[in-house]
Write a structure and sequence with these properties.
Layout lengths: L3 H12 L5 H13 L1 H20 L13 H17 L1
Helix pairs in contact: 1-2, 2-3
Length: 85
């Protein structure tokens, strides 16, 4: 059976269905046996889904609950990424 570290090394490829059958089966077995990795995968998938949902409509206003400092940091980061391209 895979260790948690080994599963972590394969997780992205596993979720994107890019592993050979033997490794996929090892990952499935590990997830069935390890509640910690199962929880981690669920949380990872929820994070990805929420991230995609957050950017479905770029014209949506930023919720009032988002701190102003966070908005400024995100905009500054985006500006840095654009200037690097």
């Amino acid at each position: 059976m895979l260790t948690c570290k080994q599963f972590d090394d394969f997780m992205i490829d596993f979720l994107e269905q890019e592993l050979p059958l033997k490794q996929r089966l090892g990952c499935w077995l590990h997830l069935k046996m390890c509640r910690h990795c199962s929880k981690f995968v669920r949380q990872y998938q929820q994070t990805i889904a929420l991230g995609k949902q957050a950017f479905e409509d770029p014209n949506d206003p930023v919720p009032e609950s988002v701190p102003e400092d966070l908005i400024k940091a995100a905009l500054a980061h985006r500006a840095n990424i654009k200037s690097d391209q």
